[in-house]
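SMc04008-like domain-containing protein: structure tokens wanted.
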Amino acid sequence: MVDKVELEAAAFRRLLRHLNQERSDVQNIDLMILAGFCRNCLADWYREAALEAGLEMDKEQAREAIYGMPFAEWKAHHQREATPEQLAAFEAARKRHG
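Answer:
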């Protein structure tokens, strides 16, 4: 019998595949503006869960687990410089989500 944790893990893996393979064009700043979280947030939450479980994990290890590659490599391939419009929208969203 499949338990809830297995279903949640499968859904999480699908979310990562969607964000990193199917929609790598969606920038983290746009995710932050619209949803209040991004791939880096997922990496932070992943690391926090690891630490709570007693596993040593640094920020870069967590990001690699989420991005499926070293973060610097991801940035070089997929991340564009934020536009002034994105930065303004991000600041407004940050104030709303505060």
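The chain has a mean pLDDT of 93. The chain has one domain: 4-97.

Cheers.
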